[in-house]
Write a structure and sequence with these properties.
The complex is a heterodimer of chains A (501) and B (620). Chain A is mainly α. Helices cover 72% and strands 3% of the residues of chain A. Chain A has 21 helices and two strands. Chain A has a two-stranded antiparallel ribbon. Chain B is globular, with a radius of gyration of 28 Å. Classes of the chains: A mainly alpha (501), B mainly alpha (620).
Chain lengths: 501, 620
């Protein structure tokens, strides 16, 4: 078994072990620590000098099914720079989420189910990001989604949690279905003989790949993946789901699993239907402005911290779409970097908001004020998370946004064009996100404290550890984005290189 | 050395944050010590004259191939747009940045020193000094930046340090609001700044100042270049608080007074002016933008001076006067090349005398137990003699008494404007020269002369040496900073001689002198021996109601537009996109009944079946 296979299967095996009766939290913790270690080992041993298609490494393939007339089914994994960055993201957030998860005796319901689900979400995400076989890429994502629905329905907050679980199930189920149709169309139009993504990608570069079909493929994938990433107007599942999900699930879904949609657009939609991407560019620009400007305003109007954070995470997806819409190395690299940055920063915010919800009950802005005085550690860490989220230089989010903006502005045109105008619109979003985040910080942490508000003890070390893991990673990549760019660029380059073969 | 100047304050800020904060006295001393050290480094740097300094650049973002030497030679800085992006953290060490660094670190050090006294008993002393160090780091980055993106990075970071320091007493609602307001208003400016950077980039292919300077002559699209420069100028409008984004600066006075002196008078707010001077080659190439800059500066100078006439809070009078003087400096940046140097010259002299005035007001406020209303002071001349005399010298420089530093630098700006035949802005600037002496004389008369009007004023004591020594040093600089032995290293820009702009008594000097005499005379006539303001002009006192207008707009957006969007999202987008299709797609009723059972097992079972179903469907 290769290191990469071990990395993917370990959380699933751990989930199995938890199901069979090993101590849940310890097993989950051990598994996620080892996963992070393995991810780091892979990163260190990753060869960054390989370009394009050749940059796929640590590959393994096990034939599973070979039915005549159907594409062969292989349990195949491999890692290029894009996958590696998302694996690092998954490993970091998984560990942090497991640390944030309540101790067994504090869980109402079955602790085993709780930790088992977390591990399945983590393992599913890791599998989806590293599978080089289209079937398993899809299947691993589904594997991660199902426990997500379960967790919201069973361990979620609030009276509406079942309804919310139902909503997100329908939404993402429909999204997955549309996606499936698009993928089947793609595989069919590319010969229908393989699920191997690299193979499909190189076939798609052939001039025979019909532009009309590409247009359909891209549209289906855009809507399918778009629903999974809460692309406007398919976003309304996100905010309530995150507000009502258990904290670790909100962290894992918003931080990691949601990135699957973006990953799919980069990994599949762009390379498998490049002509389609060009055709629908203006639609994508319109929708992403919907995410940034319209959802931005909706975010301002929120009255509860958790809902506001949920909407903010929807809004920030617009920037990733902008990078993808740029359709060049710089822009797409920025989008991948933003997946990493946003994944960490939103997990960070949900971790802190979850800590607060446990102690204050609900998170209505109205009842808060002046918390920084009585809870200085929370105030400081939330401040860091706030500034990370609004893209302050020094945090990875800023570096990613810079790459996206420069990518979107690049091009041969001498004057303004549609995507440059859209970028200007997206820049205004930077003001909007500062408005809602600083208003929230002002309302919750600054000013006088309402007399009625009783404050609990500040964050203990065990509360700070998961938050610090995320924060340190955000700062490290913010100061040195090339830490990840060195992995991302060769892989992204491969999406655009017309292969010699 | 440039790297140590940049990183030392950051290390100090990080050290305080990570643990030193427990010992606030140590934090304060370490921070002050590091400020002294950076000052020494900067003096060493400045003594190098114009000699080029080789510094290593740190590659912050490097994607793709760098342009080859030949491509760069040919002026093609971005041969593969979209394929490659290279952004470094590197330094421009020239006359402009050397001079600015001297200002930043010298005033920075004096303010640290003063703060040791002023913030002695403050509970958040560690946080305060960490904020000062963070500020010093960020400001250094702006000054030394060799490219637009690096400047933007530190531009944002000074914004944060300013946010932290304005909001130092964050449990006070007014301070918390002021901090937020400052950051958000600046973000509006930064929105334009970033757009401008991107536009300049597509026009010239570069973000590096030296490369842009080479490429700007070849830009064909003059219209877009003008727009690009105006966008960049937006950044300066925010940071240097020009109309219409001036509203944050007066509120920023909620911060501790030494912060007002350093950040909101001498250095950070001048960063916009500095940035414009750094890209003066761009402004020279964009005529329309240059004219706009002149007018925005002139209008700011006038409106702020009018608002200053009717303020009663000692710090707010000074804040509006800062706005007004920044207007002069910004105006100068659009005048033309000589104007840019004149504007920087005024930035230097203003930095000293305005820092002095703010620290002086800090001493007054400290002595009067945090009373800031000048009508509740009075007679402080006798109680605080050192403070009074240094304050008087700062005032003299601000109102341009002949032979003080402020006289020469203001003269230089006005002469440059006249030379370029910008008669409208020139006339406005002259009018401001009548108003400035009036409101400053009013301030000095009411606060320092007459009889003490309250107990606090009556019981005031002179401040200790840790506070008056910086005042005395600054007073010296305020008077003499225009003269060669001080200004030599500051003005060593090499490419322009500003000597011809001042030093001869022409029309400008005569008009300024008339303005000085009339302004001071009128103020003495109206305010000598008064216990309350004999003049009432509500429009000026209410700052032309601009804040109210903006507040209305903000409410409109937050309450109406944002809530409308929220409403639409709940009752339009969600049902149309989601629920309606979902409901029809699934014969919902029966499925819902299953869920309403609320039985976990049923629920889990349902998912399990669905999952297996999906997988079977896929495999088969």
């Amino acid at each position: 078994m290769s290191t990469l296979e071990l990395l993917v299967l370990l959380p699933l095996l751990a989930a199995l072990a938890v199901g069979l009766g090993t101590p849940a939290r310890i097993t989950a913790l051990a598994a996620s620590v080892i996963v992070l270690a393995l991810a780091l080992i892979l990163a260190v041993n990753f060869n960054t000098s390989l370009e394009g298609d050749g940059s796929l490494q640590f590959t393994s393939s096990r034939p599973l099914l070979d039915i005549a007339g159907f594409p062969k089914l292989n349990l195949a994994f491999g890692l290029d720079g894009i996958s590696l960055v998302l694996v690092l993201l998954s490993a970091l957030v998984l560990l942090s989420a497991v640390l944030v998860a309540p101790k067994e005796d504090a869980i109402q319901g079955s602790p085993r189910l709780y930790y088992l689900s977390l591990l399945l979400i983590g393992g599913g995400a890791l599998g989806a990001f590293t599978a080089t076989d289209l079937f398993f890429l899809y299947a691993f994502h589904e594997l991660a989604l199902i426990p997500t629905f379960l967790m919201i329905g069973i361990f979620g907050h609030g009276e509406n949690r079942v309804r919310t679980a139902w909503t997100i199930t329908i939404f993402l189920g429909v999204g997955s279905l549309i996606l499936l149709v698009g993928l089947i169309l793609a595989v069919g139009s590319l010969g229908g003989t393989t699920f191997d993504i690299a193979d499909l990608t190189s076939r798609a570069k052939s001039p025979d790949h019909d532009a009309g079909t590409q247009s359909w493929i891209f549209l289906l994938l855009l809507v399918g993946f778009g629903i999974l990433v809460s692309l406007f107007p398919f976003h309304s599942w996100a905010a309530p789901a995150y507000a009502e999900a258990p904290t670790p699930v909100a962290m894992l879904h918003a931080g990691v699993l949601k990135k699957f949609g973006l990953y799919g657009l980069v990994r599949l939609a762009l390379p498998l239907a490049p002509a389609g991407a060009e055709k629908w560019l203006n639609l994508v620009l319109l929708l992403l402005l919907g995410n940034i400007l319209y959802i931005g305003l909706v975010t301002i109007a929120q009255k509860r911290l958790d809902r506001m954070l949920g909407y903010s995470s929807v809004m920030h997806m617009g920037y990733a779409f902008l990078g993808i819409a740029a359709g060049n190395v710089v822009g797409v690299s920025g989008a991948v970097l933003l997946m990493f940055a946003h994944g960490l920063s939103i997990a960070l915010l949900f971790a802190l908001a979850g800590w607060m919800r446990e102690r204050f009950g609900d998170l209505d802005f109205e009842k808060f004020g002046g918390l920084a005085k009585s809870l200085p550690r929370l105030g400081l860490l939330f401040g860091f998370a706030t500034f990370a989220s609004i893209g302050l230089p020094g945090f990875a989010n800023f570096a990613a946004e810079v790459e996206i903006f420069f990518g979107a502005f690049a091009g041969e045109d001498a004057g303004m064009n549609w995507i440059r105008w859209a970028t200007i619109g997206a820049l205004w979003g930077v003001v909007i996100s500062a408005v809602y985040m600083l208003r929230a910080y002002r309302g919750v942490f600054m000013g006088p404290k309402p007399e009625k508000l009783e404050t609990p003890a500040d964050l203990a070390w065990s509360d700070r550890l998961p938050v610090l893991i995320l924060l340190v990673a955000l700062l490290a990549v913010g100061f040195a984005p090339d830490l990840l760019n060195q992995y991302i660029r060769p892989a992204v380059n491969g999406l655009f290189l017309v292969s010699a073969g | 050395m440039a790297w140590s100047v940049l990183l030392l304050p950051l290390l100090v800020a990080a050290a305080i944050l990570l643990g030193l904060k427990r010992w606030s006295g140590v934090s304060a001393l370490v921070s002050t010590g590091s400020a002294l050290l950076t000052l020494i480094f900067c003096i060493l740097l400045a003594s190098g004259g114009e000699a080029a300094v080789e510094t290593k650049s740190y590659p912050w973002i490097s994607i793709g191939d760098r342009p080859s030497g030949e491509e760069i030679q040919a002026g093609n800085f971005n041969p593969h747009p979209g394929e490659a992006l290279h952004i470094g953290i590197g330094f421009t060490i020239d006359g402009l940045s050397r001079g600015m660094m001297l200002i930043v670190t010298s005033i920075g050090f004096l303010v640290h020193l003063f703060s040791l006294g002023y913030m002695k008993d403050d509970k958040g002393k560690s946080r305060y000094f960490a904020g000062l160090s963070l500020f010093l780091f960020s400001m250094t980055g702006i000054v030394l930046a060799d490219n637009f993106v690096m400047m933007f990075v530190f531009w944002e970071l000074v914004g944060v340090s300013s946010y932290i320091l304005i909001g130092h007493w964050y449990d006070k609602a007014s301070a918390a609001d002021a901090a937020k307001k400052a950051f958000l208003v600046n973000r509006i400016g930064d929105f334009g700044f970033m757009a401008g950077i991107l536009l300049v980039w597509i026009l010239t292919g570069s973000i590096y100042f030296d490369e842009i300077a080479k490429a700007v002559g070849g830009v064909g699209n003059a219209q877009l270049l003008n727009i690009a420069v105006l966008c960049v100028f937006c950044g300066a409008v925010g940071k240097s608080a020009q109309v219409p984004l001036h509203v944050w600066l007066p509120d920023a006075m909620e911060g501790p007074t030494p912060v007002s002196a350093l950040i909101h008078a001498a250095t950070m707010v001048a960063a916009g002016v500095f940035m414009l001077a750094r890209v003066s080659f761009l402004i020279d190439a964009a005529e329309f933008a240059a004219h706009t800059i002149v007018w925005v500066g002139a209008i700011t100078a006038l409106l702020a001076a009018l608002m200053a006439l009717q303020q009663n809070d000692i710090k707010r009078v000074l804040a509006y006067s800062t706005l007004s003087q920044l207007g002069y400096m910004v105006m100068a940046q659009g005048v033309g090349h000589g104007g840019s140097d004149a504007g920087m010259f005024h930035l230097y002299t203003h930095a000293f005398f305005k820092a002095l005035l703010f620290l002086g007001s800090g001493a007054v406020i400290y002595a009067c137990h945090h009373e800031q209303d000048i009508w509740k002071m009075g007679g402080l001349k006798k109680k605080l003699p050192i403070t009074f005399w240094t304050f008087a010298l700062g005032t003299a420089a601000l109102i341009a008494v002949p032979f003080t530093s402020g006289f020469w630098s203001k003269e230089a700006i006005l002469e440059a404007a006249l030379h370029e035949k910008l008669h409208g802005p020139y006339a406005i600037a002259i009018l401001v020269a009548f108003l400035t002496p009036f409101y400053m004389t009013r301030l000095v008369l009411v606060a320092f002369f007459g009889k003490p009007r309250t107990k606090d004023a009556d019981h005031a004591h002179e401040v200790g040496p840790v506070m008056w020594v910086p005042l005395a040093l600054l007073a010296f600089l305020a008077v003499f900073s225009a003269y060669g032995f001080v200004s030599g290293p500051l003005l060593a820009r090499g490419h322009a001689d500003i000597g011809h702009l001042f030093g001869h008594f022409g029309l400008t000097a005569i008009l300024s002198l008339v303005g000085l005499v009339v302004g001071v005379g009128a103020a003495i006539y109206f305010y000598k021996g008064r216990d309350q303001d004999p003049i009432s002009i509500p429009l000026f006192r209410d700052k032309f109601k601009i804040d109210e207008l903006y507040l209305g707009l903000v409410h409109l957006f937050q309450d109406a537009v944002a809530k409308g969007m929220d409403f639409a999202d709940r009752y339009l987008v969600d049902p149309l996109v989601a629920r309606f299709p979902a409901m029809t797609a699934l014969a919902a009723g029966s499925v819902f009944r299953v869920f309403n059972v609320g039985n976990v097992q049923t629920y889990a079972f349902f998912f399990g079946v669905a999952a297996v179903g999906v997988i079977l469907y896929l495999v088969l």
